[in-house]
Amino acid sequence: MRQNPATSCLVHIFVCHNQRPPGGLPSCGASEGQAIIDRLRESATRYGLRSRVWLTSSQCLGLCHKDGVTVAVYPQKHFYQGVTQEDCQELIQKYIEPLCMASRDEGW
Ligand code: FES
Known about the structure:
Elements: E1 11-16, H1 33-46, E2 53-58, E3 69-74, E4 78-83, H2 88-106
Parallel strand pairs: 1-2
Antiparallel strand pairs: 1-3, 3-4
Helix pairs in contact: 1-2
This protein binds FE2/S2 (inorganic) cluster.
């Protein structure tokens, strides 16, 4: 095993995309997972931060919710349940826009 010290990732956002068969436990994939990840990716791209903001569709994060998607943000270790497209702007303001400002201030 070899550690890669060259990663440029500053924030890694996992968006649950798990889809269970109908009739069982709720699952995020039946909600807006893809739309949410597309919107966050579009924002990271717009701010020129695609290599700094990693976005990953994940399987079940263990916090299933019937009214939206589960999102996990690292390294902050923040977890959100019931995320909808209406919450994307808040996630962008909290995790992506500050990186944009830092990149301008620090010139990276
Ligand atoms: S199905 Fe998304 S957290 Fe479990």
